[in-house]
Specification:
It is found in: Cell membrane. One of its GO terms (cellular component) is plasma membrane. The structure is a single chain. This protein is an alpha/beta fold. The protein has 2 domains: 219 residues, Alpha-Beta Complex (Spore Coat Polysaccharide Biosynthesis Protein SpsA, Chain A), CATH 3.90.550; 73 residues. Helix content is 49%, strand content 17%. Strands 7-5-6-4-1-2-3-8 form an 8-stranded mixed β-sheet, sandwiched between helices.
Length: 312
């Protein structure tokens, strides 16, 4: 059984050496493996360091992007270029310990699952705000998506050849990879672990990137936001009809003086305007994704592909 390790990297020069040593230490117990590093447009020495190891180890492959295309594009590149019977996706920051790989492989063999996804019990080294927003992220995506995803999970997972082959059929961009894997079905098994703090450096996954990922996840797997806009529109119309009937009855049947004032008018106008803007924003997000898709641009551009040139 050939094992592929997929490692997306972006400005990780401070941890690459430690990561490489720990990966090699783990994989030394296996006869057939490859490590695919994807340099996602790093502007530090990440590419140089990985290339140095590639020249020393015939099992190392390095794909370098022409610019930063994002974490999901880097993971996608690794899956598409995998030649293993199984592939394990792991980030370079060492928050997901490489030492768990043998246990994940054992669980894969034991459970005969197609996917072993790592589920976080705890998140060490993260501040309160980061933990809260992460929890909200997973639950919001799950709430609004038509497909139910396992919560408290990232891209750290083992996938087998069935998943890899199925993934290669997807043409959509941008991709929400953990969502696509859940959408595929097959047998999927959780693997519980404690997430560690970063070994060095700072996270490259900003709140803006998290927000964009959440939008991609929701829009790619749900039409609920459009339906929510429809419901808000219907409720607004009902409120308007009820208020109109109330005013009509009070004025024509009870000769009541209608209170004249700007407050009620402004509240109604602001509320209706907010509903309309919200609905237009939701529609615009869906249209923007359709626009991105029909342009049919490549998911990423590989500047250099170093799979050979092994130097003894």
């Amino acid at each position: 059984m050939k094992i592929t390790i997929i490692v997306p990297c972006y400005n990780e020069e401070l941890v690459i050496e430690i990561l490489y040593k720990r990966l090699i230490n783990v994989l030394s117990n296996y006869n057939d493996y490859e490590i695919i590093f994807i340099n996602d447009g790093s502007n530090d020495n990440t590419e140089y360091i990985i290339d140095k190891y590639r020249k020393e180890n015939n099992n190392i492959k390095l794909f370098s992007f022409s610019r930063n295309f994002g974490h999901q594009a880097a993971v996608s590149c690794g899956i598409l270029n995998s030649s293993g019977d199984i592939a394990i996706i792991i980030d370079a920051d060492l928050q997901d310990p490489p030492e768990l790989i043998p246990s994940m492989i054992d669980e894969y063999i034991k459970s005969k699952s197609n996917v072993i996804y790592a589920k976080r019990i705890s998140r060490e080294g993260e501040n309160f705000f980061k933990k809260v927003t992460a929890n909200l992220f997973y639950r919001l995506v799950n709430l609004l998506s038509d497909i139910k995803f396992p919560i408290d999970t990232g891209d750290f997972r083992l996938i087998d050849k069935n998943i890899i082959d199925a993934y290669k059929q997807f043409k959509e961009n941008p991709k929400y990879i953990r969502g696509l894997i859940s959408w595929m079905g097959f047998k999927q098994q959780p693997f519980l672990y404690n997430r560690k703090p970063r070994e060095a450096g700072k996270t490259k996954y900003t709140y803006k990137k998290m927000f964009n990922l959440a939008l991609t996840g929701i829009i790619s797997f749900s039409t609920k936001p459009l339906r929510i806009s429809l419901i808000l529109g219907i409720l607004s119309i009902l409120c308007g009809v009820i208020l109109s009937l109330y005013v009509f009855i009070k004025y024509f049947f009870f000769n009541a003086d209608i209170i004249k004032g700007w407050a009620s008018i402004m509240i109604t106008v602001i509320f209706m305007g907010g509903v309309q803007l919200l609905s237009l924003s939701v529609i615009s997000e869906y249209l923007s994704k359709i626009y991105e898709q029909i342009k049919n641009r490549p998911e990423f551009i590989i500047k250099s592909n170093r799979e050979t040139n092994y130097e003894k």
